[in-house]
Design a protein that fits this description.
The complex is a heterodimer of chains A (375) and B (301).
Chain A: E1 4-12, E2 18-27, E3 32-36, H1 43-51, E4 58-63, E5 66-67, E6 78-81, H2 93-103, H3 108-122, H4 137-149, E7 155-159, H5 167-186, E8 192-197, H6 200-206, E9 209-214, E10 217-222, H7 224-229, H8 234-239, E11 246-252, E12 258-262, E13 265-269, H9 271-274, E14 284-289, E15 294-296, E16 305-314, E17 318-325, E18 328-335, E19 348-353, E20 359-362
Parallel strand pairs in A: 3-8, 3-9, 6-7, 7-8
Antiparallel strand pairs in A: 1-2, 1-4, 4-5, 9-10, 11-12, 11-14, 12-13, 14-20, 15-19, 16-17, 16-19, 17-18
Helix pairs in contact in A: 2-3, 2-4, 3-4
Chain B: H1 2-54, H2 59-64, H3 76-83, H4 90-121, H5 127-139, H6 146-155, H7 163-170, H8 175-186, H9 191-198, H10 203-232, H11 235-240, H12 249-258, H13 265-300
Helix pairs in contact in B: 3-13, 4-7, 4-8, 4-10, 5-8, 8-10, 8-13, 9-10, 10-13, 12-13
The chains are: A alpha+beta (375), B mainly alpha (301).
Chain lengths: 375, 301
């Protein structure tokens, strides 16, 4: 049972490069926290500082009620799953699992019992006498998870554990890890997880809460639904969701309600957006529209964006339209049953956004200036 | 009609001919290649084969019969050679060699692994200078340090003991081995060691349980090199050992040359053959690891 608290955590490397800029984060007991961000955003560095594999330049890391800044990794009550499994190549699976317990000089029967239990949970019983090089990627990853599990740590750390697997295995391992987390929680065992990934799908599907990071800063911490619906800034908006949110640069031109000029085309919004917007004429803004929130405009609808269709991707249940809007690229996702090629005239198409789902960001600061007050 | 059929047939014939032609070329080129390789290999091996053959000849035959198959094979050279002209048999000299090689090889493996681990995995003040010093000693000719070494060991009172022959090596004195292991370690990802630290291993446990097993091929190469070089070392024992009862094989072989007026060549050759055996046996036993060790160390470094 442990919560993990990070206070003003900083990392400065020897060459004065500041990787982590004083971040603070609370992970509650039993919570599945995902750190997500593009490569180089210091999410792995943060995880390694929690693990004790990287020295902490400033701030503190607290696991339970202990400050662990200066404890070696083995005494922090953590266990970690590495991206490339990091199984000990010369040890059989059985010994890979038991290594940590052997170092702690646990009695033999206890070690055997734990090994059997963990092998049962992860369905790796038949692999116990194999060497790591005789395992497939998925099996090796399960052993790596088993090695973390057997120690009954207070906090589990995962460092991009699925990125070496193929898409299908990744999907099944995702479910397996989430199930495992639920199971630990149900059994009353410590199940606090910090999970690092660069894949927003993994983050959205697995996390209780998600911490989006960029360049050593935390951009937003929230549950998946909030993150998707109420992104606090343009970065989070663009990072979460697939295909990515369209971020179009425009200028506010008030004309009765609110009108934004996008690539020279005025787009007017009704009270749904106007009421919550804090912007004035001439402000440079970024308009964020998710591809799913664009639909093909009706013939008589003047308030639409017109662009050239660059190409059309048929995905089965939906169609991705890549539209060129005077140099700006735009993606629209239309359900297959509502897609009619006749709507495209001479490669031209007119699209209209769903107003209540549009976000407007201050282009200077990237902050979302159109967030409705929380319900 | 007939012409139409004849055209593809001719083309087919042409391809078949080309096929046979390319096969013949392949056979010829392989034959030439293997003949050359076998020839050069034989030239390289000839002195060794002659040595083994001559060790079974009588003294007079060695100089009269240039071939390597003895006319009247005898093991007299082995019997007489083993006894030597000293109060000791060759068994003593083999034992002496063993007493030098064993601590030297084990000491080298342990100390070099530890030092290489330190250089490859840890940051510490002065690391760059120390590493540069290590490389510098690698480039230093051995002969230059002979006299300072000798004076040092004399002051320590180690002359005429085995200590000068193995103690330096047991303290990672062979920069080449340290360097080789560092290169090998650099090619091994750190994740396993980090996993071990998370599992609760301290630095020493990580070294023993994780790093050393992964270093095994390289360590075997180190041990083999050390074994063979020590076996063949003549100058070291010559400088530091003065009593005959402490002579290793390399020195003992010379005994038969200067203690008798007429050289008993068959004895010398017979004992040379015996002296070669341990190195050969060990090399063939460990050949697989040996090659793995140098190739990985070299390529990935």
């Amino acid at each position: 049972m442990a919560r993990l608290q990070i206070r003003n955590l900083e990392k400065v490397y020897g060459n004065a490069f500041k990787a982590v800029h004083g971040i603070s984060l609370d992970v509650n007991d039993g919570e599945f926290m995902v750190l997500v961000g593009p490569s180089g955003c210091a999410k792995s560095t943060t995880l390694r500082m929690i693990a004790g594999l990287e020295t902490i330049t400033g701030g503190e890391v607290r696991i339970g009620d202990r400050i662990v800044n200066n404890l070696p990794p083995g005494q922090r009550g953590i266990s970690m799953v590495f991206q490339n499994y990091a199984l000990y190549p010369h040890m059989k699976v059985r010994n890979n699992l038991a290594f940590g317990l052997k170092l702690k000089r646990r009695p033999k029967p206890e070690i055997e019992e734990s090994t059997r239990a963990v092998a049962g949970i992860l369905e790796i019983d038949p692999l116990l006498d194999r060497l790591p090089k005789q395992l497939s990627g998925g099996q090796a990853q399960r052993v790596a998870v088993g090695r973390a599990l057997i120690k009954k740590p207070e906090v589990f750390l995962f460092d991009e554990p699925l990125s070496n697997l193929d898409a299908k295995l990744r999907a099944s391992m995702r479910v397996r890890i989430t199930d495992l987390h639920k199971r630990l929680k149900r059994d009353g065992l410590s199940s606090t997880v910090v999970y690092v990934t660069h894949d927003q799908t993994e983050a959205m599907t697995m996390g209780d809460r998600i911490c989006v990071m960029k360049d050593g800063h935390i951009m937003q911490v929230a549950d998946p639904v909030t993150l998707y619906n109420r992104p606090e800034n343009a970065f989070v908006a663009g990072f979460i969701g697939s295909p990515e949110m369209n971020l179009l640069e425009g200028t506010v031109v008030a004309n009765g309600g609110l009108t934004v000029a996008l690539a020279g085309q005025p787009l007017s919004f009704g009270p749904a957006l106007t009421d919550r917007l804090k912007a004035k004429d001439g402000d440079a803004v970024t308009v964020g529209i998710r591809p799913q929130h664009l639909s093909i405009a009706a013939q008589d609808d003047d308030n639409a964006l017109e662009g050239t269709v660059a190409h059309v991707e048929f995905m089965g249940h939906e169609v991705y339209l890549h539209v060129d809007l005077a140099g700006m690229r735009l993606v629209a996702v239309v359900p297959s049953d509502r897609y009619n090629p006749a709507d495209i005239h001479d490669d031209h198409i007119r699209l209209t956004p769903r107003e209540e789902a549009v976000h407007i960001f201050d282009r200077q600061t990237g902050r979302n200036i159109s967030l409705p007050p929380e319900a | 009609m007939t012409q139409e059929i004849a055209v593809p047939a001719a083309a087919e014939l042409e391809t078949a001919r080309a096929h046979i032609e390319s096969r013949r070329m392949h056979v010829i080129s392989s034959a030439v290649r293997y003949f050359l390789l076998a020839g050069v290999g034989f030239i390289m091996l000839y002195p060794l084969i002659w040595l083994i053959g001559a060790s079974f000849k009588t003294n007079s035959e060695i100089f009269t019969n240039p071939g390597f198959i003895p006319q009247e094979p005898t093991i007299d050279g082995y019997i007489q050679g083993w006894k030597t002209s000293t109060p000791y048999t060759f068994a003593t000299f083999f034992w002496n060699t063993f007493l030098i090689i064993l601590p030297k090889t084990i000491g080298t493996a342990i100390s070099c692994a530890a030092v290489a681990y330190g250089f490859a995995r840890f940051e510490f003040p002065g690391k760059k200078i120390l590493f540069a010093t290590l490389i510098a000693t690698l480039l230093l000719p051995n002969v230059v340090t002979r006299i300072p070494h000798y004076l040092l060991f004399r002051d320590l009172g180690w002359l005429d003991t085995f200590l000068p022959l193995w103690v330096p090596s047991a303290f990672a004195g062979d920069a080449f081995f340290v360097f080789m292991l560092i290169q090998f370690l650099r090619a091994i990802p750190r994740d396993m060691e980090e996993a071990a630290r998370v599992d609760g291993a301290n630095t020493l446990q990580t070294l023993i349980y994780i790093v050393v097993p992964m270093l095994a091929p390289a360590l075997i190469s180190v041990c083999l090199f050390q074994f063979m070089w020590t076996m063949n070392d003549f100058l070291g024992p010559l400088i530091y050992l003065s009593s005959v009862d402490k002579y290793p094989i390399s020195l003992a072989l010379k005994l038969s040359i200067d203690t008798t007026e007429a050289f008993q060549w068959n004895r010398i050759l017979a004992m040379s053959v015996l002296a070669l055996m341990p190195a050969l046996v060990v090399f063939f036993l460990a050949q697989k690891y040996f090659i793995e060790g140098i190739s990985t160390g070299g390529v990935k470094g």
